[in-house]
């Protein structure tokens, strides 16, 4: 009997230790989290895509490092159809600021914002706003133009391939900026476009690049989230230009540079303004001067004179002396669309539905 009683006491004591121990751990964690400002992120792809979602996740990490009072939550690989459900889930989890990071999330963001007026929403790359919802993007066309300068100087066949995602103004604008850079230094070069109708599909995007290589392209550029196009170029032994971040590790023998994103400082500014009560709904379109967009370091394959050319043009852009879509600019048929000396308005650039001279491809694919 004594042995049984002793065993029972020991078991009860052990249960009490484990229970209180677990309660203590949970309590500490809950206390820490309850003191923090919860910020949610919705990604269209995985954070490890080495592309678009990766850059936003790097910005999220930067946010937590710079603002210790912030606790972030991410939902990855969310489709447009599931976006409203995902955004609502983040709200119900207590997130007070939510960043939705894909063009297709625009309408779902506005819809959820109307239901939760006490939460701040920021949508990336769209154009709609509400009292508690703003939008943000960067003038990635600026570094795309600079990368076009490098491509135009490096091509020998005068055929440059461009693997493009969807025929929307954002992507069209990037192709046009890139082509203007190419043609400024090489009027004989053309930019051939292939649409994939994907943001992230490495095999399909790699195959699209291969089709361009078969058309004698010796430089491959892209508006895709995977390094597939670069890998196709690397296997063929030709030059490549990445996108989103420095993709040099995927094509070490042929990589030239990449137009890149730097979201971290912007995320910090937004969260600070919400916390301090100074946030206002706006449509933010940051430039190279803001450093939200930039051109990655050019590789050793790029000659010094080309690097200097690119740096000189970058200086004119960041100083505000000049911008990419300043006339004269012709369309594919040779018609003047932007007269000499005139600069396209933001509204015109945001609604791009035509290609500049030098692009081979159509927009209605």
From TrEMBL:
PROSITE patterns: PROKAR_LIPOPROTEIN (PS51257). InterPro entries: ABC-Purine-Binding (IPR052910), PnrA-like (IPR003760). Residues 37-319 form the ABC transporter substrate-binding protein PnrA-like domain. GO terms for cellular component: plasma membrane. It holds the Pfam family Bmp. Keywords: Signal. It comes from the Bacteria. This is Purine-binding protein BAB2_0673. It comes from Syntrophaceticus schinkii.
């Amino acid at each position: 009997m004594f042995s049984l009683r002793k065993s029972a006491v020991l078991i009860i004591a052990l249960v009490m230790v484990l229970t209180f121990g677990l309660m203590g751990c949970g309590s500490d964690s809950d206390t820490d989290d309850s003191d923090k400002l919860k910020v949610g992120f919705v990604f269209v792809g995985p954070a490890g895509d080495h592309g678009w979602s990766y850059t936003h996740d790097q910005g999220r990490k930067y946010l937590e490092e710079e603002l210790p009072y912030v606790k972030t939550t991410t939902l990855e690989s969310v489709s447009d159809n599931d976006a409203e459900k995902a955004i609502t889930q983040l709200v119900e989890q207590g997130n007070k600021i939510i960043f939705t990071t894909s063009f297709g999330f625009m309408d779902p963001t506005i819809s959820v914002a109307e239901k939760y007026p006490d939460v701040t929403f920021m949508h990336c790359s769209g154009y709609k706003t509400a009292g508690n919802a703003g939008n943000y993007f960067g003038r990635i066309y600026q570094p795309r133009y600079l990368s076009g300068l490098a491509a135009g100087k490096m091509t020998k066949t005068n055929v440059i391939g461009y693997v493009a995602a969807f025929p929307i103004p954002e992507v069209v604008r990037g192709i046009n900026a890139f082509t203007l850079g190419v043609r400024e230094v090489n009027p004989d070069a053309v930019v051939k476009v292939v649409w994939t109708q994907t943001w992230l599909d490495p095999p399909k995007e790699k195959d699209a690049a291969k089709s361009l290589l078969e058309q004698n392209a010796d430089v491959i550029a892209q508006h895709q989230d995977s390094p597939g196009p670069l890998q196709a170029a690397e296997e063929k032994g030709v030059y490549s230009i990445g996108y989103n971040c420095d993709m040099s590790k995927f094509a070490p023998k042929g990589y030239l540079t990449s137009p890149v994103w730097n979201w971290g400082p912007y995320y910090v500014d937004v969260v600070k303004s919400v916390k301090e009560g100074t946030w206002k709904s706006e449509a933010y379109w940051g430039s190279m001067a803001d450093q939200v967009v930039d051109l990655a370091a050019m590789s050793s394959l790029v000659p010094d004179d080309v690097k200097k050319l690119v740096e000189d043009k970058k200086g004119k852009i960041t100083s505000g002396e000049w911008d990419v879509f300043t006339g004269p600019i012709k369309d594919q048929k040779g018609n003047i669309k932007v007269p000499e000396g005139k600069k396209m308005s933001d509204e015109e650039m945001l609604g791009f539905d035509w290609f500049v001279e030098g692009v081979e491809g159509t927009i209605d694919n």
